[in-house]
Every structure is written in structure tokens, then in C-alpha cells.
Request: fold
Amino acid sequence: MYFDELDLSDDILDALDAMRFEECTPIQEQTIPLILEGGDLIACAQTGTGKTAAYLLPVIDRIADNPDRSDKVQCLVMSPTRELAQQIDRQMEGFGFFLPVSAMAIYGGTDGAGFARQQRGLKMGADVVIATPGRLLDHIAMGYVDLSDVRYFILDEADRMLDMGFYDDIMQIANRLPKERQTLMFSATMPPKTRKLAKEILNNPTEISIAVSRPTEKIDQSAFICHEQQKTPLLQLLFKQTGTSRVIVFASSKLKVKELTHELRRKHFKAAEMHSDLDQNRRDEVMHEFRNGRIDMLIATDILARGIDVDDIALVVNYDVPREAEDYVHRIGRTARAGAGGIAVTMVNERDMQRFGGIERFLGYEVPKRDIPEEYGKGPEYRPERSDRKQNARKQKYKSAGKPRGKRPDNKKTPDSDATRKQATGTENIKSGDSAKKRRRHYNSKRKNDSGNSKNNID
Reply:
């Protein structure tokens, strides 16, 4: 479907034409007509499928078409990170170029001048506010944010916001909004906690799910089956073969990102780290240097797997296998964008074979394996199913070892149990920490009572 087949205004279509957007993606084709009808919506589709345009286009079209709109905030878009908020703001600028719709991005990590600019925008009432939850709550706490006229509440990357612990913040913001509003939730995945949030804030929503697509054929995928200690030498070999310009290397933890970046810099590679320990100013600086070519490669956690729009990435390396197949698709989807080709290489050690086997089953094909040169040593044999057998055997071993020996099947205590013996001897009230003198008093008293009872019985 083409955009001009949708019920969008000429001003929107002119902006899309100027941006050379002609054909809708599947998520745009299915969601835009529903949003224009005014109902709540849950849309599940992976990053890179055009979700931002799917909600911005119909919403700003309806805002511009409303002659009675006030000077207050009309639409509130929630974003998990500053980077994604900035990206949405840039797209908003393009889509609304021919429309009298104002927008303001609200996020942390700014200086005093930036905070004051955000403050002015909220006081004046920008039509569309794109905000991270924490920073918006900071402004709300200062008493000048009026959300009483919000007609559209949009949550982008909802699953990621919940993973980052924003559930309470989102609920606090949602409770300040008018009940009569249109709420749109967009998410790459739909785990139980995301569905719980949807149940709390949406009203009889329509649900649209676009299956996670397989990576484009333009991505040249391959993998090294290697030992952990072989990874860094093979990474350097890969750089020699493919070049080092426009590279992203994904690692599993912040510590590994820091160590690998230090190692590559020591070998004179122009590398920079990207993870959540960096403050926002440093993240912005790193991304700016990367886009301008002053940095060749980024070593990153999954913070770069979603929500970062860089079109000309030549090589993506999974230094560690991602936990989920969808994460794999998101990571390697950083390359081969905007019609270009790209290379994606994954390094698989012995512990990650089963996980990578699951990714291959999800993809529906086996990822080609690269040969390791002899001078780098021999790698392990690729046996993804072997881990399953080992794990099952280990579970069975622990299960058997956990059964107590000599225990009755019905789990009932016999008359010879400790509790029964204590009751019979009268020691149930004696604690191990009691003194010897106290113990003697107890036993003497017990014997006297027993003797008295015996006499009474005889009499």
C-alpha cells in the first residue's frame, strides 16, 4: 500500500514525498487506519519496521485538523532513552514540516540552559511532547506541567521501558492524564509484564502483531566456533579482512565492553565504548564522533541494539551470543539498512552453542561457519544439541541426589523419630544451649513427678 491511499492530509503527503517515503511498511499499513478511527491500540513489531511513522503520522494529522485545540499539550509520547526521544523528535520535525504542529523533546543529561528550554516548552504547551519518564516526572514535580488536555498517549518501546524499571513512573504519569484519551502502545516484544501494563492503561484495545521478520538477505551472516580466548585474536583478524570503518561490536556485559575497548585501543584501533554507565553527554559525544568518522568502531552492550538510527554500518560483530533470537535480529539489523549490504559475524564458544543453535532454529537455516586459521589454534566442535543432553543429565543427577535416603514414601515420621523420642523422654523443652545445672533441675523435677504419679496410681 502507498501512503497516498491512506486518509492523510495533503500536508502530510507533501512531507512524505519530500522525504521520499512512498510505500507503507506492514505495521504502518495496518495501524494508521485504526489510529485515525480513534481506538486504543497495541502494536507488536520489531525495531526498524517503521513504528515511529505509524503513530506520528495519524496523530499529528488529527491534531492539525482540530481547530479547537488549546495551547496545552495534546500528545504525550513516552520513550525509554534520550537517544530514542531525540530520534523521534527528528522524525517529528520532518513529518510535520508543512503542518502548524509544535513538538518538544524532554530528556535528562542536559545542562541548565537545556533544562530551561524544556521548561519553557512545557509551560507554553507544545502540541507534542516526547519524553523519558524520569525527566518528565522531574518537571511535573515542579508544578508547571499541565497534562489536562492530552488526547493521545503513546508508549514507544514499551517492553524496554519496563525492562529499565519504569513501570511505576509510567503509571504515575498515566494517572495524571484525562481518562478520555487515545492510548497507543508499541513494543518489539509482548512479555507478561507488558501485557499487564496494557491492561492497566488501555481501554478495549485492538491488537496487531507483526511477526519478527528474519534478517534481510543483504546481510552476509557467518559465525566463528571458537574458544573464549580465541575471540579477540579472531576479532582482529576479522578487522584485517573486512576493514575497521563503521563497525559495531556487541558484548554481553558492561565489564566486557570496557575490557575489550581498552584492549583494542592498546592495539591502536579507534574504538569507543557505549553502555549505560556513561552519562548522557558522553553518549552523545561518542555517537557524534562515530557518525562523523572520528571513531571507527563502537564496542557496546544491547543499548545500541534498538533505537539508534545509523544507516551505514558495514560490520556487526556479536562478540558474545545474544540471549534471545529476537536480540540477534535486532543486533545484526544495525547493518544493511537503507538498501545497503552488510556483514554480521557471531563468535560462539562452548557455553553458547545451545543458545546459538536456538537462534538458527528461529532463523530456519544454519548460519555458515568460518574456518579458523591454523595459527590461531583449533576451535571446538560445533555440537549445539550436546548441551541439551548434558543439561538434562545434570538436572537428573541433582534430582536424584536431592532425595533423602531411607525416607518413607508417605513422608510420615515413624515412632522412632526425634520428635517422638523427645516427647517420650520429656526433653522437648530442653534447648541445646541450656546449662548443665538447669538440665539437672529439669530431670530431677521430672523424676519426682513421675514417682508421684506412680504412687497415686497404686493407691
